[in-house]
Structure formats: C-alpha cells, structure tokens
Write a structure and sequence with these properties.
Helix content: 10-25%
CATH topology: 2,3-Dihydroxybiphenyl 1,2-Dioxygenase, domain 1
Strand content: 35-45%
Shape: globular
CATH architecture: Roll
CATH superfamily: 2,3-Dihydroxybiphenyl 1,2-Dioxygenase, domain 1
Strand order of the largest sheet: 6-7-8-5-1-4-3-2-9
Structural class: alpha/beta
CATH class: Alpha Beta
Order of helices and strands: EHEEEHEHEEEHE
Length: 164
C-alpha cells in the first residue's frame, strides 16, 4: 500500500466511520419497499428544502445503512443527476470529526473539494469530486448526535418532515 507523502496529512484520524451509501431514485416510496424487502428497517428521513430532495435512511441486516434520495424540485442537483445518469449510486458518506479540517487536508492533497456547507452545531458537509475519487462522489459530513428526527416513514413520504 502506498504511503501518504510526509508533507500531506491523511484524513484517517478525522474519519469516524462509513455512515451510508446513497442512491438517487425517482420515487422514495418505491425505494422504501425495496429496502424493506432486503430486510431493512426505516431509521429516519426528511425533506431537505435547501437541496430540493427527500431522503430516507434504512439500516440493513448486519448494520449497513442505505440512503435513498429523490427530487422534490425539478431544478435541484438530483433532478439533473437522474436525467443524465438514471437511478443508481450517488455517493458514499463518511462521518468526520471536522468537515473544515477534512476539506483543508483533501484540498492540500490535491483533491477537488466541492459543495462545502458549514452549519456549526447542525449538519456540515463537503464532497470530494468523483474525478478525484475514481468515479465516486465522496461526502464528508459532520453532525451532532441526536440531530436526526425520530419520525414515522408515512410522515416522511407525505412531506410532513422538513429539515432546513
């Protein structure tokens, strides 16, 4: 395995764990059915008005988590993604202890960092562009424990749970 050059700081000490893989879908309810068929248990979800999408998380047997994202606006990134690529893998999310530091180190290592969004005490994120990550969009995110709502799936699917 290649060593990280001495002048670069690895991100490994900032990464707490791989949180989830995300798939872009046109219909979150249909994705929920598939995830339940696979033995998944609904965890949480909401409408993200800032981003123009609805998301749900399911925990699968063995502990892996999958996020399904669907557009709720026709001018959001996810709408464009689905129209150009179709449904499928969108990103991989790592929980990090500091998004700011992770973005700094990634940029210093020559990786293209996009979508930096900082909301101290809530959700903060950045992405490593797929061109710098072997075709995979990598999300580095930071959030406090207890941030996500304990809500029924039916309320999420009905658009009654809003995050902003």
């Amino acid at each position: 395995m290649p060593d990280v050059p001495e002048h670069l700081e690895p991100l490994s000490d900032l990464i707490e764990y791989l949180d989830h893989v995300a798939i872009g879908v046109r219909d979150v309810a249909a994705a929920a059915e598939l995830l339940e068929l696979l033995g998944g248990a609904f965890v949480t979800g909401a409408d993200n008005r800032r981003g123009g999408f609805r998301w749900i998380h399911y925990r699968l047997p063995g502990g892996a988590k999958v996020e399904a994202l669907a557009p709720i606006s026709d001018d959001c990134f996810l709408w464009r993604f689905l129209n150009s690529r179709g449904e499928g893998m969108h990103h991989v999310t790592f929980k990090v202890s500091s998004v700011t530091e992770a973005a700094r180190r990634a940029e210093r290592a020559g990786l293209r960092v996009v979508g930096l969004y900082l909301d101290p005490g809530a959700w903060s994120e950045c992405f490593i562009h797929p061109a710098a990550a072997h075709g995979t969009l990598i999300q580095l995110a930071e959030w406090p424990e207890g941030l996500f709502p304990d809500v029924p799936l039916e309320d999420v699917l009905a658009g009654k749970v809003i995050e902003d």
